[in-house]
């Protein structure tokens, strides 16, 4: 979804000369298409994420919309205070595009596992947080976030993610998308782990269990109504995220349920401390968590 | 045009500097706030910059062609608000509300105050943002300039050196970094804590144009702040050698006044000293 997103950004920026793309020297073989098409709107600032965010804030304070690109933890955790103070407090139109979200760079080791980013970004003032599940969601979210002209975080995986939605599916930051409707359990997913939710729903169906599957492209704002409807329409809810289960998507869903006085059977499928320090492909690492259908069955 | 050119009667920058020092002393006394020493060391820089150099319009704080100033040493908020009040961005009477409950003049510089370009208070944030502004000016071939006032202690922050490296590579020749080099930081002398010397040479090694001046010498400040880039196509660093607590004898070069605020008797003594020095 990296390439599709940068293509969407290039198309958008062609008609918007105020949009600039900054990278901290990452994005080889991905960003060239933008740089070649729009050289005056592209700056490689060097390996300096803190300065990159500050430079973005300065550009944004003087009339630009700025997009930052780097690997998941570098343009988020490394420069968290610059994002908090310089960008978010000032409510500036700066969007961070992070690649390698979750365990997409699993074999690269713990430094490259982006498993706290969503929760942390979602705590920052004025920040929208988007976690697309597939290239279709990513392409659709990019212009919405730019149109918003406020701080935004777009978390991507890497390349080769399959399209999970039928063509023509309407994707917005604010609304969850129902891919499958059932009655027993609702599988609520954010990000490409949606694919595992869909596969699990099929397996569950073979076992006589009817599962709904919803995708949440927006981590913040979270579609609270969809959460409440899921709780009212099913006996159980299982959330899925490629992120620490503490302080992430499942936690946000739980907050919504608790505030509404709803108490369905509830579980969270996501990264735990047990994965810290382990290396392996994204699929191998997620397999360490056990089959999604087993987590679902345990709730029923 | 500068404030002075608009007849705002700020051409006597020395008198302005005295008023700024007086405001800051009263503000820290009333609010029992810290950082008076950091305010006093940069009073002359602020007086010359705002009184005689900057192109600003207090009636239009967002005027697109204004010069930009970022005060990266956001803890010196009292002297910043005092300067903006003297320029007409806010009522001078509001200075009594510095750090007050429910007021807008927070103890570190905040953008909710008219005339403030960037909220600061965590060190090492200002210069990268000033770089972004200078980059915007370069892209637009604009005439306005970007100034960033830094403390010496905050040059410990690596983000500054990221920005210093970027600025020369991007050839940001409308960027001016002013270091208030008062030689004292939070826990002691800069020499003891971070050994910043030779500061000017560090900037030179990063391909910046550099000038070293007495940061309390108004003609020297005026020359440095009014001139173009020292090296064509490169950013400029003005290393302003200053005295922490300058203008109040018992505060000068005393670490204690990074933290302490003057009581009523000390305030009276300090104001009398400023008056006597007039």
Strands, helices and their partners?
The complex is a heterodimer of chains A (300) and B (278).
Chain A: H1 2-14, E1 19-23, H2 32-37, E2 42-44, H3 49-60, E3 65-71, H4 80-88, E4 94-99, H5 117-121, E5 128-130, H6 135-148, E6 152-155, E7 177-180, E8 185-190, H7 194-206, E9 211-215, E10 218-220, H8 224-233, E11 236-244, H9 249-259, E12 265-271, H10 282-287, H11 292-299
Parallel strand pairs in A: 1-2, 1-3, 3-4, 4-6, 5-6, 8-9, 8-11, 11-12
Antiparallel strand pairs in A: 5-10, 7-9
Helix pairs in contact in A: 1-6, 3-4, 7-11
Chain B: H1 13-31, H2 36-41, H3 43-53, E1 68-71, H4 77-87, H5 126-140, E2 146-151, H6 158-169, E3 175-181, E4 184-185, E5 188-189, H7 190-193, H8 199-205, E6 209-214, H9 218-226, E7 236-241, H10 264-276
Parallel strand pairs in B: 1-2, 2-3, 3-7, 6-7
Antiparallel strand pairs in B: 4-5
Helix pairs in contact in B: 1-3, 1-4, 1-10, 3-4, 3-9, 5-6
Tags for this model:
heterodimer, A: 300 residues, alpha/beta, Rossmann fold, 2 domains, seven-stranded mixed β-sheet, five-stranded mixed β-sheet, 11 helices, 12 strands, 36% helix, 21% strand, globular, B: 278 residues, five-stranded parallel β-sheet, two-stranded antiparallel ribbon, 10 helices
What is the compact description of this entry?
The complex is a heterodimer of chains A (300) and B (278). Chain A is an alpha/beta fold and 300 residues long.
Give an overview in words.
The complex is a heterodimer of chains A (300) and B (278). The mean pLDDT of chain A is 97. Helices cover 36% and strands 21% of the residues of chain A. Chain A is an alpha/beta fold and 300 residues long. Chain A has eleven helices and twelve strands. Chain A has two domains: 2-155, Thiamin diphosphate (ThDP)-binding fold, Pyr/PP domains (Rossmann fold, 3-Layer(aba) Sandwich), CATH 3.40.50; 177-299, Rossmann fold, CATH 3.40.50.920. Chain A has helices spanning 2-14, 32-37, 49-60, 80-88, 117-121, 135-148, 194-206, 224-233, 249-259, 282-287, 292-299, and strands at 19-23, 42-44, 65-71, 94-99, 128-130, 152-155, 177-180, 185-190, 211-215, 218-220, 236-244, 265-271. In chain A, helix 7 (194-206) packs across helix 11 (292-299). Chain A has a seven-stranded mixed β-sheet, with helices on both faces. Chain B has 278 residues and is of the alpha/beta class. Chain B has a single domain (13-276), classed as Rossmann fold. A five-stranded parallel β-sheet of chain B has the order 1-2-3-7-6, sandwiched between helices. In chain B, strands 4-5 form a two-stranded antiparallel sheet. In chain B, strand 6, helix 9 and strand 7 form a beta-alpha-beta unit. Chain B starts with 12 loop residues before the first helix and ends with a helix. The mean pLDDT of chain B is 95. The A-B interface holds A 40, 43, 45-46, 48, 50-64, 81-82, 85-86, 89-90 and B 64, 68, 111, 117-122, 124-137, 139, 146, 158-159, 162-163, 165-166, 169-170.
């Amino acid at each position: 979804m990296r390439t599709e997103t940068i293509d969407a950004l290039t198309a958008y920026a062609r008609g918007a000369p105020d949009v600039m793309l900054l990278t901290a020297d990452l994005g080889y073989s991905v960003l060239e298409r933008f740089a070649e098409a729009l050289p005056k709107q592209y700056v490689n600032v060097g390996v300096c994420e803190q300065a990159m965010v500050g430079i973005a804030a300065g550009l944004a304070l003087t009339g630009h919309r700025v997009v930052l690109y780097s690997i998941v933890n570098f343009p988020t955790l490394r420069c968290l205070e610059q994002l908090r103070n310089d960008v978010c407090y000032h409510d500036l139109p700066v969007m961070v595009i992070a690649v390698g979200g979750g365990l997409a760079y699993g074999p690269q080791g713990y430094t490259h596992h982006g498993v706290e980013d969503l929760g942390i970004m979602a705590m920052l003032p004025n920040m929208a947080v988007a976690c697309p599940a597939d290239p279709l969601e990513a392409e659709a979210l990019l212009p919405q976030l730019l149109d918003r002209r406020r701080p935004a975080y777009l978390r991507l995986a890497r390349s080769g993610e399959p399209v999970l939605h039928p063509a023509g599916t309407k994707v917005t930051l604010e609304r969850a998308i129902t891919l499958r409707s059932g009655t027993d359990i609702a599988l609520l997913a954010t990000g490409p782990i949606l694919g595992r939710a869909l596969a699990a729903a099929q397996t569950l169906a073979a076992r006589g269990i009817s599962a709904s599957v919803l995708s949440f492209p927006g981590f913040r704002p979270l579609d609270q109504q969809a959460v409440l409807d899921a709780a009212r329409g099913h006996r159980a809810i299982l959330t899925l995220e490629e992120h620490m289960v503490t302080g992430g998507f499942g936690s946000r869903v739980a907050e919504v349920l608790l505030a509404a006085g709803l108490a369905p059977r509830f579980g969270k499928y996501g990264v735990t401390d047990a994965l810290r320090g382990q290396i392996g492909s994204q699929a191998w690492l997620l397999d360490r968590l056990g089959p999604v259908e087993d987590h679902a069955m345990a709730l029923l | 045009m500068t404030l002075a050119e608009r007849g705002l009667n700020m051409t006597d920058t020395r008198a302005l500097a005295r008023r700024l020092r007086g405001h800051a002393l009263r503000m820290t006394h009333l609010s029992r706030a810290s950082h008076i020493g950091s305010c006093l060391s940069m009073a002359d820089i602020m007086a010359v910059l705002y009184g005689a150099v900057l192109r600003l319009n207090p009636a239009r704080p967002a005027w697109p062609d204004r010069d930009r100033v970022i005060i990266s040493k956001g803890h010196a908020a009292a002297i910043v608000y005092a300067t903006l009040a003297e320029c007409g961005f806010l009522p001078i009477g509001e200075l009594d509300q510095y750090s007050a409950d429910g007021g807008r003049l927070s103890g570190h510089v905040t953008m909710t105050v008219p005339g403030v370009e960037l909220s600061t208070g965590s060190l090492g944030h200002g210069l990268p943002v000033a770089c972004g502004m200078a980059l915007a000016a370069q892209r637009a071939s604009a005439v306005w300039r970007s100034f960033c006032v830094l403390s010496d202690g905050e040059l410990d922050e690596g983000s500054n050196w990221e920005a210093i490296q970027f600025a020369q590579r991007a050839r940001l020749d409308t960027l001016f970094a002013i270091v208030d080099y008062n030689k004292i930081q939070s826990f002691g002398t800069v020499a003891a804590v971070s050994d910043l010397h030779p500061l000017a040479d560090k900037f030179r090694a990063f391909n910046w144009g550099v000038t070293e001046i007495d940061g309390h010498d108004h003609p020297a400040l005026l020359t440095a702040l009014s001139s173009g880039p020292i090296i064509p196509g490169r950013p400029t660093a003005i290393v302003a050698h200053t005295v922490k607590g300058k203008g109040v004898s018992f505060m000068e070069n005393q670490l204690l006044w990074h933290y302490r605020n003057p009581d009523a008797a000390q305030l009276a003594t300090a104001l009398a000293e400023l008056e006597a020095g007039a």
